[in-house]
Amino acid sequence: MQADTASKLLSEHFGRATEDVFPPQTSRIAEIEAFLELLRGVLSKRSALYISAPITSGRRFVEWYARRENSHVSSEEYRRDHLQSVIGPNRSAAVALVKKAREVSSDQVIDPTAVGSIEGWTQGDYRTAWARVIDEFANTVVFSSGWEFSNGCSYEFLVATKAGIKTLDDMWRPLDPRRALALLTTAIDELSARSLPVEFLRGLAADLATLTNGNTSTFVEDRGLTADSKTFKDSVLDSLASHGNVAQFVSFSPALQVRHSRILGFSPNATFESVSEAILALLAAEMVK
C-alpha cells in the first residue's frame, strides 16, 4: 500500500487524529445532552439492550490490512476495497446481531450502527455520546465478534463495566473484565505487530485492569501490560507525542524520578537532576508560549 494511502488509512480508522485520545474528549456537551433528553421521552432508565459492533475497524479490518499493506493502490481503490471487505461484512454482522437481539430479548434494542454520520463530529464526540446512552439507558451491552480491535467498542465495554451493566459476547455468553482484558491485550499485540496505532487501547486496557477484582498484577505482567509496554497514562501520552501534538508535560515515578517529558526547548524525555528543576523548566516554557 502506498505511503499516502497507508497514512490516510491510519488516520481514518485508528485515530491518529489528535482528538482521538483516551479517555475521549468532546466540546459538544450541550448537543449530547439534547440528544439524551429526546431519548428520555422514548426509553426508561436502564431499560434497553445496546449493540456494540465495529463498522470501519474490528478484526476484519486487521485481516484486510494484513493482506493489503504492501499493495500499491490508489486512495479510491483502497476505499472501494475497504467498503467491500470490511464495512460491508461488518454491517451484515451487526444487522444479524441486532435481529438476534430482538428475537431473544423483550427489551428495546439500541443499534448505534444505524445512525449515520453527523457533520463536524469527531470520534471523541461519538464515543462520549454513546457512553452517556449506555450509562443511562442500557441494562445489557452485547458485543459483536472482533469488538476488541475497535477503539469505540472497547471504550463501550469499559463504560458498561464501570457502570455495572451486564456485558455479553455475540453468543450471549457473559463477557467479564478478565476475559475482556485478555482479548484486548491480544488485539494490542496483533495491532502492534503490524505497526498500527494502539495508544488508545493501551490506555483503556490499563484502566480496565484496575477493575478485575484486584487480581491484576500477575495477569497484567503475563499479558505484557507492564510499565515498559506503555500502559501508564503518561507513557500513552509520550507515545502520542511521537506522531501528534500534545500539551507540554512532565511526569514522575512513585520514587519521584522523571519518567516522561515534553518541554519546549528540551529534547523529548529530557533528564533533570531534580523534581524542582523539571517543574521550573516546564513553568518557564509555559510562560514563553
Q: What string, H for helix and E for strand, traces the elements in order?
A: HHEHHEHEHEHHHHEEH
Give the neighbour order of strands across the main sheet.
Answer: 2-1-3-4
How far is the first residue's CA from the last residue's CA?
39 Å
Secondary-structure content class: alpha/beta
Rg, please?
A: 20 Å
The major beta sheet can be summarized as: 4 strands, parallel
Oligomer: single chain
Low-confidence stretches: 1-5, 216-231
- What's the tally of helices? 11
User: Average pLDDT value?
Assistant: 83
**How much β-strand is present in the residues?**
5-15%
Helix share bin:
40-55%
How many domain units? 2
Number of strands: 6
The coarse silhouette is globular
Note the main attributes of this structure.
single chain; 4-stranded parallel sheet; disordered N terminus
